[in-house]
């Protein structure tokens, strides 16, 4: 088992390197760099940067180095957990990721539970009552769930919740409970903001798992 895991990890290293190269190249493709963008923003606000300040920024962030050197400086920090510095957020990349990692894992875990709770009973029902009205309805909803992208469902929910229901559809809390101390009201408000992304994230996987459950049970 350990040998298998080690083999899988070693097999992932070339893929990781290739993906990092492609990502770095894509970032470098647009003309200019961060300093160019900063100059444009300052110029748009009526200010300006002298040549020495521009050159100092490029040297500070290593933007004056050749592309291979920039890539190596970026990727060589990965084994140490150093993923670079975000110029946009003005913070280390790992600090930005770590601040959101817990919520990401929570939402992913809840979406997985949602998939199991919904798809397994429906898959069993569809296999038991093959070609019935319920099976056809669930099959149609399953194909619909596979066809609609997650980001489209998110946009639809944002528009519907904001314009039709008049509720806050962004963030983890409503504006009135963001700074409030923990209470039952704040916890219920958190749950009310968690279920939409959980459902949206789980829709595609639920639809796929329904088809898998139905097909496997029909074979049996």
Written description of the protein model:
- The chain is mostly helical and 220 residues long.
- It has two domains: 2-91, no CATH class; 97-219, no CATH class.
- 73% of the residues lie in helices and 2% in strands.
- It has eight helices and two strands, in the order ααααββαααα.
- It has helices at residues 2-28, 34-44, 51-60, 67-75, 93-128, 133-147, 150-165, 184-219, and strands spanning 85-86, 91-92.
- It has a two-stranded antiparallel ribbon.
- Helix 5 (93-128) runs antiparallel to helix 6, helix 5 crosses helix 8 and helix 6 packs across helix 8.
- The protein is extended and about 75 Å long.
- It starts with a helix and ends with a helix.
In helices, the fraction of residues equals over 70%
Strand content: under 5%
- Strand pairing plus helix content: what structural class? mainly alpha
Sheet of most strands: 2 strands, antiparallel
Strand order of the main beta sheet, please?
1-2
- The SSE order reads HHHHEEHHHH
Low-confidence stretches: none
End-to-end span in angstroms? 30 Å
Number of helices: 8
Overall outline:
extended
Q: What is the average of the pLDDT values? A: 82
Radius of gyration from the CA trace? 24 Å
Q: What number of structural domains do the residues give?
A: 2
Number of strands: 2
Secondary structure elements and pairings:
Elements: H1 2-28, H2 34-44, H3 51-60, H4 67-75, E1 85-86, E2 91-92, H5 93-128, H6 133-147, H7 150-165, H8 184-219
Antiparallel strand pairs: 1-2
């Amino acid at each position: 088992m350990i040998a298998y895991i080690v083999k899988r990890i070693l097999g992932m290293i070339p893929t990781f390197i290739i993906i990092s190269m492609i990502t770095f190249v894509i970032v470098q493709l647009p003309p200019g760099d961060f300093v160019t963008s900063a100059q444009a923003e300052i110029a748009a606000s009526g200010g300006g940067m002298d040549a020495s300040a521009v050159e100092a920024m490029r040297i500070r962030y290593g933007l004056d180095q050749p592309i291979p050197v920039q890539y190596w400086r970026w990727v060589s920090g990965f084994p140490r957990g150093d993923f670079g510095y975000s110029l946009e957020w003005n913070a280390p990349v790992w600090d930005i990721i770590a601040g959101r990692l817990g919520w990401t894992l929570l939402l992913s875990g809840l979406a997985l539970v949602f998939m199991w709770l919904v798809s397994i009973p429906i898959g069993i029902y569809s296999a038991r009552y093959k070609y019935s009205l319920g099976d056809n309805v669930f099959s149609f909803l399953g194909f619909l769930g596979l066809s609609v992208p997650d980001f489209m469902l998110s946009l639809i929910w944002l528009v519907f919740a904001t314009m039709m229901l008049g509720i806050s559809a962004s963030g983890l809390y409503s504006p009135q409970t963001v700074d409030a101390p923990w209470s039952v009201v704040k916890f219920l408000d958190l749950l009310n903001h968690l279920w939409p992304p959980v459902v949206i994230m789980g829709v595609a996987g639920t639809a796929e798992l329904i088809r898998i459950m139905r097909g496997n049970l029909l074979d049996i």
